Amino acid sequence: MIHLRGAKALRIAAIAATSGLALLAGVTSAAAETTVKWLHLEANPAYVAIWRKIADEYQVKHPGTKIEMQFLANEAFKAKLPTLLQSKDAPDLFYSWGGGVLKQQQQTGTLLDLTKAMDAKDGAWKKSYNQAAIKGLTFDGKVSAVPYQMGTVSFFYNKALFAKAGVDADAIKTWDDYLAAVKKIKAAGIVPIAGGGGEKWPIHFYWSYLVMRDGGQQVFSDAKNGKGKGFNDPAVIKAGEQLAELGKLDPFQPGYLGATWPQTLGVFGDGKAAMILSFETTVATQRVNSGDGKGLADDNIGRFAFPAVTGGAGAPTDTLGGLNGWAVTKKAPPETLDFLAYLTSAENERTIAQAGLIIPVADGAQDGIKSPLMRGAADQLAHSTWHQNFFDQDLGPSVGRVVNDISVGIASGQISPKDGAQQVQDAFEQDQL
């Protein structure tokens, strides 16, 4: 059982006070049972089990509150959430990737402004998180979601397959090195990369990272602010050309254009591809999606950062990844905030981190990271010179969909790099109208 004490109890009391609740730490009113509807998209049962345990512990402490967990698969979540938020069945809290999608949700008026609650009692609740996370989830001075985790995308590889192909992962420093490694792995009769083209967004990691490496922060900042040549910048087109060059090597598993992300993780976990460009949680997720449920042994998995581009303006220490949180809808019962403070407390974030599932943002929870690969991702984030949220999230849903579409189109040879850049620019300009 996890107990509320000291500063944490004061924080909960502050949330109660600013939300007009009759709630203090560990105290509920005698009113009828309140249900808090929690919508997530986590398919890993081990992960959900930890969340459920935390929710059950909360319910024991707060017998007047029931936490109801609801699930939608990733793509269904993206497709149905906008309509769901406007309906009577809207969740009380839901998962968010942050960025332009979250900002747009805020602008529609469906989200609760969390600023007042977080600023209460000298900002005790707000100060309990990594402040970069708070900043990244704040738009127009309003805190739009409760921080949950930060993450970065990097390459994970099968050490045994790399050894069989005679490839040294430590020697992959540049994009040219990476392409040479792909060729060498393929020549050894091994599929180089597990790719998830069916859902499209996994392929956008390649295009986005190459844009970052070629153009640097200034090019991307100018493009998303309508300055200069926008997404028609030469660096953006060059990134597309480099992705096209990779695609011509036919590096992905057969049928990758129809593969879902769980299937892609399974390809890697079953040892049917040498590497995958994926999240910091890959060690856990490849296991659960593998055919035998065991996947690759932890000590058979290595990790390396997305390589530098020779002559590019971006730094190899620039990172692409998520800043994830929990958004609250305006009609949510006030108990929702109480539960969120509990869920994202240092104690509970430490528990989730110990399972190798997150890089926590709650101060004091970082010592829960036990996995060496997860620790490597956390250290990379700690030294990041520019951490960029996923392009498809940062640019908003309309432009983001085009980014994902053209990434797959370029990689598969169906769209030219120049046409892809123009399509993103057209979508951006249309979105500004």
From TrEMBL:
Keywords: Periplasm, Signal. Residues 1-32 form the signal peptide. It comes from the Bacteria. Pfam families: SBP_bac_1. GO terms for cellular component: periplasmic space. InterPro entries: Bact_solute-bd_prot1, SBP. It is found in: Periplasm. Belongs to the bacterial solute-binding protein 1 family. This is Putative periplasmic binding protein ABC transporter protein.
